[in-house]
């Protein structure tokens, strides 16, 4: 059935469409952290994230990355291929920051010669625990071959994204991706790419991402609007 709410997430609601293989993602004016423990309405965030994510996914599609993105259909809505999400948060780090810096007692900013990849198991009731390849195999979340594909694809996406952000004087510090399987069983990039799930620093070291909300550094939408404006100049 068309226009039925399939899933309500923290940042997006997902609706069915007339095509069983297509869903509509509706971005929300909501910011959460600590697995939803802190939740705030931030007017204008939905429009910005939908625009930023649409722009990035269009570029990824054009660069030959297989993604769920079909098209943006309104300020806050986009059409996506329906996938079964693989319950992994794939984190790629170009520099030490956030939980990595904290865990290993490092200052933020150290550059990694080889970007470091991490997996977290997407399971709210467990608070998304850290998970490695052997855990993934044991839990039958993905096969070794699928994990190898996800890793290679994530590194390829990182190289593309790093270049685009560098071109607009932003440093891509780290980010989180999610992958899913489409109706044919193919693994494709899903979810979103926005300052909600990456870290971006400007030339002066200012945080241009959700750390503005997490760390109470100022007005989130002002910062996201600058990121969008920069990306639109690409
Ligand atoms: P972390 O340093 O808190 O582990 O975050 C690493 C990157 O992953 C950062 O860009 C934020 C993003 N991320 C999400 O998008 N969702 C999450 O639930 C977490 C923990 C991190």
Automatic annotation (TrEMBL):
PANTHER family: MULTIFUNCTIONAL PROTEIN ADE2, SI:DKEY-6E2.2. This is Phosphoribosylaminoimidazole-succinocarboxamide synthase. GO terms for molecular function: phosphoribosylaminoimidazolesuccinocarboxamide synthase activity. Keywords: ATP-binding, Ligase, Nucleotide-binding, Purine biosynthesis. It comes from the Bacteria. It holds the Pfam family SAICAR_synt. The keyword Phosphoprotein does not apply. Its EC number is 6.3.2.6. NCBIfam families: purC. It catalyses: 5-amino-1-(5-phospho-D-ribosyl)imidazole-4-carboxylate + L-aspartate + ATP = (2S)-2-[5-amino-1-(5-phospho-beta-D-ribosyl)imidazole-4-carboxamido]succinate + ADP + phosphate + 2 H(+). Residues 6-229 form the SAICAR synthetase/ADE2 N-terminal domain. Pathway: Purine metabolism; IMP biosynthesis via de novo pathway; 5-amino-1-(5-phospho-D-ribosyl)imidazole-4-carboxamide from 5-amino-1-(5-phospho-D-ribosyl)imidazole-4-carboxylate: step 1/2. The gene is purC. Belongs to the SAICAR synthetase family. It is an enzyme of class 6 (ligase). It comes from Streptococcus caprae.
């Amino acid at each position: 059935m068309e226009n039925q709410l399939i899933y309500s997430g923290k940042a997006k609601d997902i609706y069915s469409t007339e095509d069983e293989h297509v869903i509509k993602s509706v971005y929300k004016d909501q910011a959460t952290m600590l697995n939803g423990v802190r939740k705030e309405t931030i007017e204008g965030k939905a429009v910005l994230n939908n625009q930023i994510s649409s722009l990035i996914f269009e570029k990824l599609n054009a660069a030959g990355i297989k993604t769920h993105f079909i098209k943006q259909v309104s300020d806050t809505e986009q059409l996506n291929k329906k996938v079964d999400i693989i319950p992994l948060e794939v984190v790629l780090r170009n520099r030490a920051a956030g939980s990595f810096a904290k865990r290993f007692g490092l200052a933020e900013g150290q550059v990694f010669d080889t970007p470091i990849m991490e997996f977290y198991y997407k399971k709210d009731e467990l608070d998304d625990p850290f998970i490695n390849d052997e855990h993934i195999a044991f839990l039958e979340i993905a096969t070794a071959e699928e994990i190898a594909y996800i890793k290679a694809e994530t590194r390829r996406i990182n190289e593309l994204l790093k270049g685009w952000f560098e071109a607009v004087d932003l440093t891509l510090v780290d980010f989180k991706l999610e992958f899913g399987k489409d109706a044919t069983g193919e693994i494709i990039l899903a979810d979103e790419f926005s300052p909600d799930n990456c870290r971006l620093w400007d030339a002066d070291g200012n945080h241009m991402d959700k750390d503005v909300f997490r760390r109470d550094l100022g007005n989130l939408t002002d910062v996201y609007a600058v990121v969008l404006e920069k990306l639109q100049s690409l």
